[in-house]
């Protein structure tokens, strides 16, 4: 798994990158938790998501947001980190011009950044949002949410309470043409202590079902002219 350094908006960004053998393979970008609370690309959940996509033939990248590890720049409260993520996707796409689709997976703070990236990039066809924090971050930009995806959280999460995640999920589920899959892990906290294997099992099951052509949204009703 090559260590890479590529240019971001605030200087160099450090990442880990694994290209697929297939030229047209989809791309997966994995986004880490909050930089000021110990989040890095080597977070266990981020690391495991990276390998989950890699094993399924994706070209895969995880990277450190600005100010973390060897990534340059200063923490920017989300705006700069979104630019970092966009630059990371640009960089992978420049190496894989035949790749037509992309997935984004984010954990905690990374889930918020990932959902914003989803709004900006129509080629992102699937997302995984792990322990998102709608009680802290504004998700109102998801209007409408352009892609189907998985939202997964624990019912013992004190950082992002279940009731707040449920409100976000219910709002997204009212949209036509996409399918939001919501999984709640019993007894899991924000860090999925002792439950990472269960979490990854749910993510793997979801990804496999999507890749097999399952979990297709109902077609939107045709408008009568």
UniProtKB/TrEMBL annotation:
It holds the Pfam family Peptidase_S15. It comes from the Bacteria. Keywords: Hydrolase. InterPro entries: AB_hydrolase_fold, Xaa-Pro-like_dom. Residues 17-138 form the Xaa-Pro dipeptidyl-peptidase-like domain. The keyword Hydrolase applies. The keyword Isomerase does not apply. GO terms for molecular function: hydrolase activity. This is Alpha/beta hydrolase. It comes from Aliirhizobium smilacinae.
